[in-house]
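Appendix B. Raw example, untouched.
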Amino acid sequence: MEFDKELDARGLNCPLPILRCKKSLAELQPGQILKVVATDPGSVKDFQAFCKQTGHELLSHEAANGEFTFVMKKRA
């Protein structure tokens, strides 16, 4: 999947991945895609809740080799 910006949040624990994500989304235009890679297992629930609360669309999330990848679209 193509994305406009990538955020490396590996090694960061809650709430830092979400805070960095929020900052990165602020730099994007509506409809642009942000990819986030994190290692905090709690980030799965965090990103799901974050998108639900803020209206950004969580396009996909997957886990592999202890890393969690999230792809989200900035709300219009």
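End of appendix B.
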